């Protein structure tokens, strides 16, 4: 079936890079058949390293628009390895373009924090009881930060936007550096030494925090 722009759902298959992004921007979501779309195939068809500075933002914006009508294309359905690869392959300039747009910033950060509970290593965190406050700079919240609270307790991890409990550690970091941290592109030690991450509270715990999570390696 052809929509008013002349784009058909089957044309998504086989498209790569900028051609795929341009098609997603033009296509009418109402004309997409959910049975014919695979968000992981689309994610695999895009390598941010081959795109321009603004193309990664365009990709996420297009997916966000289409996903409002076609949930099968929601970013949350991208498997962990594909998701990590997309973020890891994006340049700092590309990530900066994404986080400069408030809806996309909230969408991407929310997706990352929402996945934390599934990546918690229960074998390591079974006896852990700790609250972590995250402050992501450049945000719209108090003091110019987007804030998230992660509570690791009883072998599970709960994430919320309200700061309800006293933290064992408060971590302040820029979004791009945070993305590098959770995709194995940078270590907490390097970010700390270079002043890109600030820690208040239990420094030893903060240094080993990532070890409580089984974060997927980018492809």
From TrEMBL:
Gene3D superfamilies: SCP2 sterol-binding domain. Residues 115-213 form the SCP2 domain. Transmembrane segments: none annotated. Pfam families: SCP2 (PF02036). SUPFAM superfamilies: SCP-like (SSF55718). InterPro entries: SCP2_sterol-bd_dom, SCP2_sterol-bd_dom_sf. This is SCP-2 sterol transfer family protein.
């Amino acid at each position: 079936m052809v929509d008013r722009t002349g784009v058909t759902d089957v044309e998504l298959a086989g498209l790569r890079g900028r051609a795929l992004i341009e098609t997603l921007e033009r296509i009418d979501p109402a004309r997409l058949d959910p049975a014919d779309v695979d968000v992981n195939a689309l994610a695999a068809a895009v390598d941010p390293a081959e795109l321009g500075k603004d193309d990664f933002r365009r990709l996420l914006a297009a997916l966000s628009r289409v996903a409002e009508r076609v949930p099968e294309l929601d970013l949350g359905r991208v498997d962990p390895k594909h998701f990590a690869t997309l973020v890891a392959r994006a340049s700092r300039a590309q990530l900066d373009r994404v986080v400069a747009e408030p809806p996309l910033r909230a969408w991407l950060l929310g997706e990352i924090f929402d996945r934390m509970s599934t990546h918690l290593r229960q074998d390591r965190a079974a006896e852990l009881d700790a609250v972590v406050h995250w402050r992501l700079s450049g945000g719209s919240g108090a003091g110019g930060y987007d804030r998230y609270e992660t509570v690791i307790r009883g072998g599970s991890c709960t994430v919320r936007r309200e700061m309800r409990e006293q933290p064992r550690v408060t971590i302040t970091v820029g979004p791009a550096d945070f993305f590098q941290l959770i995709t194995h592109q940078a270590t907490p030690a390097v970010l700390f030494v270079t002043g890109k991450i600030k820690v208040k509270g239990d420094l030893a715990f903060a240094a080993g925090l990532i070890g409580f999570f089984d974060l997927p390696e980018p492809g």
